[in-house]
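DUF2388 domain-containing protein (Agrilutibacter terrestris), 99 aa
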Amino acid sequence: MLRSILALALLTCAIPAMASSFAGTTGGASSAGSSASSNSSSGKDKVVLQARDDAASFVASEGRIRGAQLEAAMRHLREHNADARRASDMQLAQAILAL
């Protein structure tokens, strides 16, 4: 149940970031390049999306590898979501990967 709530909360946080990333793309341009250079109001939500590689490393290493982007995303989520405050680091990392 908690995982479902976290996934929904993360997805809700990420939707504005995904929308702004795709809005800035043109044919052949990548959304990663557009989102990396963009400094819009959804920039904090992009922190969560950009932490996917770090989250994958964290999960694969059973919590031994803690990247800076993952740390920033977890901090952001816990500041803005009560369910995230109650979740373990592993649960948050898995939820980030589920996006």
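The longest helix spans residues 2-23. The chain has one domain: 2-22+44-98. ok done for today
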